[in-house]
């Protein structure tokens, strides 16, 4: 059974699909709640609907790393996107970190900024990280190769579910409605008609914040559902790591909370095909890798949680943000390719500005 470590937001927001609204946001993860936050600031009438509960999806199941950039190293991103674009992406994600934490307005979201360490698995990754340090420094970012790992001192970590809850608490009364499973979206000349069960809604604009699940509503959207798995332990008395660690080209990651619990995830590369799924149950195969890894880290505390979540991967590795081609009045804010906590708040701002 999937038992995420993070507690779901304590507040409940039961509701129905509204009959009529200016903007309907579908999806109650970090993207949806960020969208609602930005739309509310702009005094745009908006309602967010979520089929389960807030942070039910990847936003309540992730590792909570606030990393600058994309999955790839800076050196690889420069090769893929060009220097200017890579630099822009790193700037946006650094800003995402600062702005999102500010938006929590002092609520406890478990934020710490200890930096992150990227640990190379082989000579190829080592060379890429050394080159990344050089390029990052040249481009004005703080990064340091300490001989074994690349340190990004601006990076941080949070409790991702608490972050979603903190944004949601600032929404207007009735603006969040849980238990609404949107079944159809039909664009019209002056708006969009949606259905959920027996209910029908006429919305001016719809924004899909449904990440991995977007193709279930709009099959033409190219987002690949991709499972990621984790486990967490009880508080461990020894120090396992001084900061969150990301390794093996992003396929391994672990952190230790201030209270001692160790969270570790990844190993998707050992079973790539089985992990292309909407199924959010952990598998014995990958959990065995995680068990071996915590043994290697000499963690003695017992495992308390095992879980999986579904990420949404795009071909470009960058999020989709803006109008959906061929579907008038339908926008998308999704496809965070395993880095939504680092991207979604600013991506949502960008989409809200287009409405
Ligand atoms: C194990 C794991 C570790 C990760 N680690 C990190 C990390 O350390 N740092 C990081 O930045 N990112 C990480 N990620 C990725 C991150 O979790 C996601 O990028 C991010 O949470 C995506 O947020 P979202 O709001 O777009 O999607 P989600 O949180 O998945 O939210 C989408 C919501 O839409 C709802 N929905 C879907 N269809 C419908 C419908 N038809 N009607 C109504 N509601 C609907 C779903 O129920 C869901 O709640 C990790 C992901 C996983 C799974």
Shape: globular
Give the low-pLDDT segments: none
- What fold name stands as the CATH topology of the domain at 20-61 and 162-222 and 316-354? FAD/NAD(P)-binding domain
Chemical compounds bound to the protein: flavin-adenine dinucleotide
H and E order = EHEEHHEHEEEHEEEEHEEEEHEEEH
How large a portion of the residues is in β-strands, by DSSP E? 25-35%
CATH class of the domain at 20-61 and 162-222 and 316-354: Alpha Beta
Total number of helices: 8
Task: Provide mean pLDDT, rounded.
Answer: 97
Q: Alpha-carbon distance between the termini? A: 40 Å
Computed Rg:
20 Å
What is the CATH superfamily label of the domain at 20-61 and 162-222 and 316-354? FAD/NAD(P)-binding domain
Major sheet details: 8 strands, mixed
At CATH's second level, what is the architecture of the domain at 20-61 and 162-222 and 316-354? 3-Layer(bba) Sandwich
Number of strands: 18
Helix content: 25-40%
Structural class based on helices, strands and sheet pairing: alpha/beta
Description:
The protein has 355 residues and is α/β, with parallel strands linked by helices. It is 28% helix and 26% strand. The protein has helices spanning 30-41, 74-81, 83-103, 123-138, 160-168, 214-217, 284-296, 340-354, and strands at residues 20-26, 46-50, 65-66, 116-119, 144-145, 150-152, 156-157, 176-178, 184-188, 191-196, 199-208, 224-233, 245-247, 252-256, 262-266, 303-313, 320-323, 330-334. A hairpin with a 2-residue loop joins strand 10 and strand 11 (199-208). The longest helix is centred in the N-terminal third of the chain and has 21 residues, at 83-103. The N and C termini lie far apart (40 Å). The model has no long low-confidence stretch (mean pLDDT 97). Bound molecules: flavin-adenine dinucleotide.
């Amino acid at each position: 059974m999937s038992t995420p470590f993070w507690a779901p937001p304590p507040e409940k927001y039961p509701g129905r699909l509204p009959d009529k609204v200016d903007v309907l946001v579908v999806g109650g993860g970090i993207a949806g709640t960020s969208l609602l936050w930005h739309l509310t600031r702009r005094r745009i009438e908006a309602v967010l609907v979520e089929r389960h509960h807030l942070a039910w999806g990847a936003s309540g199941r992730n590792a909570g790393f606030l990393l600058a950039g994309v999955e790839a190293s800076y050196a690889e991103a420069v090769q893929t996107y060009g220097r200017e674009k890579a630099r822009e992406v790193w700037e946006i994600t650094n800003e995402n970190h600062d702005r999102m934490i500010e938006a929590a307005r002092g609520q406890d979201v478990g934020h710490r900024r200890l930096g992150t360490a990227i640990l190379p698995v082989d000579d190829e990754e080592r060379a890429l990280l050394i080159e990344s340090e050089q390029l990052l420094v040249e481009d004005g970012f703080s990064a340091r190769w300490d001989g074994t790992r690349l340190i990004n001192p601006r990076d941080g970590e949070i409790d991702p579910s608490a972050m979603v809850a903190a944004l949601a608490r600032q929404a207007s009364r009735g603006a969040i409605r849980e238990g609404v499973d949107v079944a159809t979206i039909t664009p019209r000349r002056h708006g969009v008609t949606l259905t959920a069960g027996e209910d029908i809604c006429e919305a001016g604009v719809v924004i899909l914040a449904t990440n991995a699940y977007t193709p279930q509503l709009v099959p033409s959207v190219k987002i690949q559902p991709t499972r990621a798995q984790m486990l967490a332990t009880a508080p461990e008395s020894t120090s396992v790591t001084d900061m969150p660690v990301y390794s093996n080209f992003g396929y391994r990651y672990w952190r230790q909370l201030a209270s001692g619990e160790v969270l570790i995830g990844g190993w998707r590369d050992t079973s790539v095909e089985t992990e292309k799924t909407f199924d959010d149950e952990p598998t014995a195969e990958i959990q065995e890798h995680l068990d071996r890894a915590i043994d290697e880290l000499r963690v003695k505390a017992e495992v308390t949680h095992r879980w999986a979540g579904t990420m949404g991967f795009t071909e470009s590795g960058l999020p989709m943000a803006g109008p959906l081609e061929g579907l008038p009045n339908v926008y998308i804010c999704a496809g965070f390719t395993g880095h939504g906590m680092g991207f979604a708040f600013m991506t949502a701002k960008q989409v809200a500005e287009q409405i």
